[in-house]
Amino acid sequence: MNQRADIDTTPTGRARARALGIPLQGSPGPANAITDVDGVLVGYSTIVEGEGKLSVGHGPVRTGVTAILPLGRDGVGTACAAGYHSFNGNGEMTGASWLEEAGSLSMPILITNTHAIGPCHRGVIDWVAHNKPEVANQWLLPVVAETWDGYLNDINGSHITVDHAVAAIDKAVGGRIEEGSVGGGTGMNCYAFKGGSGTASRIVDYGHRQYTVGVFLQANFGSRNELSIAGIPMGDELADDNPMEAYFSGRPTGAGSCIGIVATDAPLLPGQCKALARRVPLGLARTGTAGSHFSGDIFLAFSTANPDALNGRFPQGAPSEESYGHMDFVPWGRMDDFYTAVVQATEEAVLNALVANSEMTGRDGNRTPALPHAKVVAALHARGITARR
User: Fold this and answer.
1) For 2-51, what is each residue's pLDDT tens digit?
2) Is-catalytic flag, 297?
3) pLDDT in tens, 51-82
4) Best exposed site among 90, 217, 226, 301 by fewest CB in 10 Å?
5) How far apart, in whole angstroms, are the C-alpha atoms of residue 121 and residue 106?
6) Where are the domains of the chain?
């Protein structure tokens, strides 16, 4: 596999998994990100304020909002085929009932902390009402998902506002994007190391052309002893410096949750999008997790092909011979390569969230260390494991 310097680091120069020589399967897209799917944009609002003892409503604050726009800002209101899967339902993704019913998605997806769904939900409505009033004339059922950041963040303090949600949508960009402690991932932890936002992509050859599958994760799950990298259990070698699990002594430590968003430009039916979403847990499992009862692991996949074929707008006039929808789609029997791409990109997205990160101290002096790069590299080299090039 060829490695490129531009996908080994984030735009600000933070190392990603490939920079450590971790061997990873499959061929990534140009940015190795969900934004490799044409039209998909990602934006962040990141809030890091204060330090010291928790004072509810006053901080410290370590949180934010992530916005994912399937067809960009101009495409808000245009329907994409979509499906979702709840691997473990100890979490929330609003709008899921309508996703299940209609099989389509037409608005930005927001990801935040558990107690900030309300302002983010309202923020999507306000953005659409201001920028796409013709869309807001019908009902709006935004998709907003969450994971818990209360170990580091004043989660009960109402620090995320409607304005933060709107700003994340307005700041969404394509190409290479930041990872780690940014956006909704700011206060999140993964395998008791600093976690948060991670992304990756894979190119799928399909005869006459290529398609892209991209994954974005808000990674906030797993116990330290579960962590596996490149198929190597790392729990024993990385067991030291674990203040988070000491803090939760005697309580389940794999909790926290993971939200996964899968995007592709391959033409898929809603049921096939759901099938992609169901493969995200297989990628998570490659990094060691068994899936905690206290972890809300909820996943959504969408296809940017067949734009607006599944629109749910009110009909006008009586049906005519033109009153039919039409969709191209990949035959079910040819889906396996797309499933593989989801699994591979999910595994790498977890590792990118861990690698592209720094130690963080938050409320009450609670501290989460960063994944120790040198120890990971040494453990891989000790087993003769090097990156495929």
Assistant:
1) 456 689 999 999 999 999 999 999 999 999 999 999 999 999 999 999 99
2) yes
3) 999 999 999 999 999 999 999 999 999 999 99
4) 90
5) 14
6) 25-309+329-365
Task: Choose the catalytic residue: 106, 292, 295, 303.
Answer: 295
Residue 247 has pLDDT above 60, yes or no: yes
Q: What is the fold, at CATH topology level, of the domain defined by 25-309+329-365?
A: L-amino peptidase D-ALA esterase/amidase (3.60.70)
Average pLDDT score over residue span 285-293: 96
The answer to whether residue 295 is catalytic is: yes
Q: Please write down the HEC assignment for all residues of the chain.
A: CCCCHHHHECCCCCECHHHHCCCCCCCCCCCCCHHHCCCCEEEEEEEEECCECCECCCECEEEEEEEEECCCCCCCCCCEEEEEEEEECCCCECCHHHHHHHCEECCCEEEEEHHHHHHHHHHHHHHHHHHCHHHHCCCCCCEEEEECCCCCCCCCCCCCCHHHHHHHHHCCECCCCCCECCHHHCCCEECCEECEEEEEEEEEEECCEEEEEEEEEEECCCCHHHCEECCEECCCCCCCCCHHHHHCCCCCCCCCCEEEEEEECCCCCHHHHHHHHHHHHHHHHHCCCCCCCCCCEEEEEEECCCCCCCCCCCCCCCCCCCCCCCCCCCCHHHCHHHHHHHHHHHHHHHHHHHHCCCCEECECCCEECCCCHHHHHHHHHHCCCCCCC
pLDDT digits (tens, 9 = 90+) for 130-187: 999 999 998 999 999 999 999 999 999 999 999 999 999 999 999 999 999 999 999 9
Task: Name residue 145's beta-bridge partners.
Answer: 93, 111
**Is residue 257 annotated as a catalytic residue, yes or no?**
yes
Of 257, 265, 292, 303, the catalytic one is 257
